[in-house]
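User: Some background: our group keeps a shared notebook of sequences we're curious about, and every so often someone picks one and asks for a predicted structure to add to the entry. Today it's my turn. The entry only has the sequence so far, pasted here. Could you supply the structure so I can complete it?
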Amino acid sequence: MKKILVIEDEAQIRENIQLILDLSDYKTIVAENGSVGVRLAKAEQPHLIICDIMMPELDGYGVAKSLQSHSPTESIPMIFLTAKADRGDLRQAMELGVDDYITKPFTPEELLKAVEVRLARAEKPTQLRQKYEQERQQNAQLRQEIQAKQQKLQQSQQLADMRQDILHKLSQDLRNPLSNINMAICMLQAAQSDAERQRYMSILEEECAREIKLLNEIENLQTLLTPENAKILQKFNLLNQSK
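Assistant: Of course. Here's the predicted structure to add to the notebook entry:
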């Protein structure tokens, strides 16, 4: 329910406005003069203020200036009530940020229409701010998702490079036992004594065991080299040793 503050020194007009607004489902607060109206505005923070211009003690212009000098109330929209409407009044009201004007006497329809239009106009900046904040949050979430995907892609590329480096080194390591095995086979074929044959058989057994060990390391690395483990190995420079 929208809360409207009515500042009017004439009791009959003030009561009539309150009745019209109450019957239209607005919550109405009334003040009999400008000073009381300023205090109520600061205390109640209404959605709209309907204020008479010509009042004793503090007129409508003074009310507008006082509220605009107070940060919590400076953006509360106002509608001025006046028994006259000349260019000077309009210009002074516009300078104070009051862009709605109702001339006395007025009908209930005129009052309600002015209230409806002014409240709708006041809601637009709020809706724009809400839309901006919603879009800002969506953009921030989108940036986070993009950064996460880029980081994941970078990690995948690093992992692929690491695997490639390790496989390259293992390929070189596998060639050494194979060379020794081929050489031992040739020497075994040319051996002239049991001692020589036994010696080359021992070399073959050692190099075969070495080859099997390297193959087992490859299998273990397939399980070990996950993105999470790769980060740890890279952190401690363990993967660089494979180059």
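Suggested note for the entry: The chain has a mean pLDDT of 80. The helical segments are 11-23, 34-44, 60-68, 87-95, 108-190, 194-224, 227-235.
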